[in-house]
Amino acid sequence: MGKIRNAERTRRKILDAAKEEFFAKGNSGARIESIAKRAGLNKQLIYHYFKGKDELINETIADFTSSIPTENLILPANPVNIAEFRYNVNKEHLMDFLKFTAWEAIDQVPKNTNGEESRKKVLQSFVKDMTSKQEMGLVPEELDPSLITLMISSLTIYPLLYSNVTRMITGLEAEDPEFQKKWEEFLHLISERIFKMEPK
């Protein structure tokens, strides 16, 4: 039992260190040597637990997505509130991960890496939720649920991730409470325009 617990602790140290490294530097910038240093472990020990960098990043992202509290993934029943909800979850809980996705866009990494499958499950659950709401008559029939989900993702990520663009356009920093309040109100207002319908 002691060996099992030690192995679990070591694996946990590696995953925690890998998350810090990947989220700070992206896939291309991250180094196994740096992850080992962050974890306070020998580099060879990482290869004992993970075959290489690709497996490690997949496991790291899968571990991260599984650690997100359930309440942050369950969308509001009223679609009018979804964009505002997702914006607040992103702002309060996912900023480090969102910065990693910016690195990822620059890296142009191969498919099926960077925990793509585990992330796809989360995003597809949002599409399924929107589809279900459309079937209940809460979402206009002519709107594609996957495109609505992409739109909401864009509106709730871009202003946070590209704070300099937010400042140049609005005169306010993305971290400024005044901007955040205005953006929440704006997200709610446009959501009302899109989704305010009577159930079937």
Could you write a compact summary of the structure shown?
The chain is mainly alpha-helical and 200 residues long. Helices cover 74% and strands 0% of the residues.
Give structural notes.
The mean pLDDT is 89. The protein has 10 helices and no strands. It is globular. With 200 residues, it is mainly α.
Please identify the oligomeric state.
single chain
Could you tell me the strand content as a percent range? under 5%
Compute the separation of the termini in Å. Answer: 57 Å
Q: Please count the beta strands (DSSP E, at least 2 residues each).
A: 0
Task: Compile the SSE list and pairings.
Blueprint: H1 2-29, H2 32-39, H3 43-49, H4 53-67, H5 82-93, H6 95-107, H7 116-135, H8 145-161, H9 163-170, H10 177-195
Provide keyphrases for this structure.
200 residues; mainly alpha; 10 helices; 74% helix
